Structure formats: C-alpha cells, structure tokens
C-alpha cells in the first residue's frame, strides 16, 4: 500500500499555508471590527442536519457528502461537514439563543469536506471563513455584510467584482420557480442531463448550470418576479451600497446552490483563478432557523473560500514570503552560549531569528543563511564575546559591520534595504 494522500486532499507547506493563514487573520480582524463573536462547531454532525437545511436536492447532499454510519448502538448516520451554516444554526438553536437573545453576529473558520471532482481551486477538503448574522431582517444588515466583504477584498488587494441579486421570498418565489420550469421545458433538448433532473426537483438550479451558461441568457430573471416588499428591500440594499461607495453589479440570473436562501444573494469573483473564480458567496436565509426547529428569526451569512482567496493573493504576487530577519552564526562552544542569549534578546525585540547549527563550517552557515532568505547574518566568535560586539552581515549587499550587542537589533533591521 502506498501511503500517499487522498485525491482532492492537499498538504500545504510553507508559503501555501501562510497565504491561507493571512486570509484567515485578516478576516478575523475585520469580523471583530464588525462586532462579531467567534463560534466553534463540530466537524462531524448528523447527516440529517444537512438534508434538512442544505436541502435534499442540492448537489452537496445529493452527491458530495462524506457520510457513514457511526459505530454506536443506533449506528447514527454522520457526515463530515460540507458547509458551516447548518452547524452554526443548530448550535444557535441548541443554545436557546433564538428565544433568549436572538440578535447574534457570529463568525467561524475551519475545514469543510465535499466529495467533488478535484481541480484547481476545487478540493475535497477546503477551508471556509464564514459569517452568520441572526435576528436582523433589515436591508441595512445586508448592506453592512456586503460592505464588510468589499473591505476585506480591498484590504487583501486582490482584484475582484461583486455581483448581487434578489431571489425573492416564499411569497414571490413560486411564480419565478414556475416560470423557470416553463422555460426549462421549452428548452428541454438544449439542457444537460443534470438540468433535466433539476426542472422538477430544484428549478432555480437551472440557472447555476456550469455547462450551458450561454443558454440561460434567455431564462427568466428573478428580479421580474419580486413582490413589493422584496423589491423595496433590494432597492434599499443597493441604495446603501451606493452610499457606502461599494462597486457592484446586479446579476438577475444569479442563484445560490443551496435551498435555504431568500431575497439577497451575492457572489464575489477574484481575478487570476480561471474557472473557479468565486471566492465569497452567501445570502439571506430568513426561513432557515424556523425550518430547523427554532423560532422565526431572520438570518444572513456568507463564506469565504480561503483556499481560492489564497490562490488569488498568490496569483497577484501579494502573499509575502516568510523569511527570518536574521540568522545567528556562533563559532565554538563559548560563542554558542553567548549567541543563544543574543538570539533570545533579538526575538524579544520583535525580530524573527533563526539560530543556525554551531556544528558546521562558516562557509556552509553563510550559504544556509542566504538560502533561508535571512536579511542579515549575526556572527559571534570568542573575539566578539571578549569585546562585547557582534558582526552583522548584510546578506543582500554583502557588507559587514561590527556593532555592540545593544545595537544589533537596529543593524539587522537596516540590513537588506535599498
Ligand atoms: P461552486 O459553485 O464553486 O461549487 P458553491 O456554490 O458550492 O461554489 P458555497 O457552498 O457557496 O460554494 O461555498 C462558498 C465558497 O467556498 C465558494 O465560493 C468557494 O470559494 C468555496 N468553495 C466551495 N466549494 C469548494 C471546494 N470544493 N474547494 C475549494 N473551495 C470551495
Ligand atoms: Mg459547489
């Protein structure tokens, strides 16, 4: 048996992992600035949770879940979470918040699992940073969520476009649904096999067909079917986005793949990603908490695809390479004892420092210092200890300076600059 990783699962080492952490950290800082609280939920849940919320006819539940019977008495059928929203809603209800303190602003971060065909930007284990806001049915909340996403993409400096739409609510969606069914039947021969199945089970998904994107140009638009209240809600969202100077495009044929969305739906696409360009997706889900057994509380949320956002950063050359400020080189046992303390002090001065092996030759150590990308090498021998100094070598310019131990941090910080 070959002990290789599974298809669609990735090892992320160094720069690839750091790019993901960078996205996560920025998202976390921003979520806190928007007064959101963290929620951590299980990776394993009952399969039923996703059947009930994500929806029996969604691609996720129909064909992408990792699901199996647990070995407990009842052989509970469990699934690795394919998305975060159902677990967060379950946790919210289970904590009684829908009744005791319904207005909640929550964020989560972690791995999700979907058994889909792996390709660039599409993996079987991937990471999402998500936000869920409960108890806020107002359009100002939708606008603030979109402003937050705009702010994150600007902060990360990735080129992006934001698309928004409204897919109506329980009152006006049936008419739109019916129009899509009629359209689908009229275009039956041109539709793919997946879409033939969607017509009766989940007609909104006809618009999400990746195979026949061109064909949908003749399909009905959700905006033509909105009731007065949904229209007013959508108009206010747009008005607030304009007031906040957020650039967006209305895409009247955008739908979301999950069953629980109502009214506002949105997607953000980033450049440099090819086919898998959607980096953020979400929308309003006013009926979901009630569907899952809780009180009638409104909800809205989104998830950032961390893997794809990290790829976008890397494609734009915006992911900083991690390299130490200084490599410490000690010549001999006495110098090692001294150097280990110097290294600690430099770290306390907020420098990133790697102490190299004292058991190798100077030439090999200087080569190593360059290889790890250090800006400076700090060289310490017996003579330096006696005089209370260190040699700081600027590895970019190949210049060397003797400074006192107290001056070392400043000399390192100056190394490698133009
Ligand atoms: P897609 O249409 O690309 O399959 P989706 O509608 O299934 O996306 P959501 O469930 O809304 O996506 O998830 C939100 C975001 O999570 C996506 O926009 C994407 O950035 C990311 N994402 C979803 N599935 C994957 C995956 N298999 N691998 C990597 N990222 C993913
Ligand atoms: Mg998908």
Task: Give a structural overview.
The protein is built from 15 helices and 16 strands. By secondary structure, the protein is α+β, with helices and mostly antiparallel strands. The strands form three sheets. It has an eight-stranded mixed β-sheet. Helix 7 (173-186) packs antiparallel against helix 8 (193-201). Bound molecules: adenosine-5'-triphosphate and magnesium ion. Residues 83, 114, 116, 121-123, 126, 128, 257, 276, 278-279, 281, 303, 305, 307-308 line the site of adenosine-5'-triphosphate (ATP).
Category from helices, strands and their pairing: alpha+beta
User: Compounds present?
Assistant: adenosine-5'-triphosphate, magnesium ion
For the secondary structure, the number of strands is 16
How many whole angstroms does the radius of gyration measure?
27 Å
Largest sheet: 8 strands, mixed
Count of separate DSSP helical elements: 15
Shape: elongated
Helical fraction equals 25-40%
Mean of residue pLDDT?
94
The end-to-end distance, rounded to whole angstroms, is 53 Å
β content, as a range? 15-25%
Strand order of the largest sheet: 1-5-6-11-10-9-7-8
What are the main properties of this structure?
single chain; 418 residues; alpha+beta; 8-stranded mixed sheet; binds adenosine-5'-triphosphate; binds magnesium ion
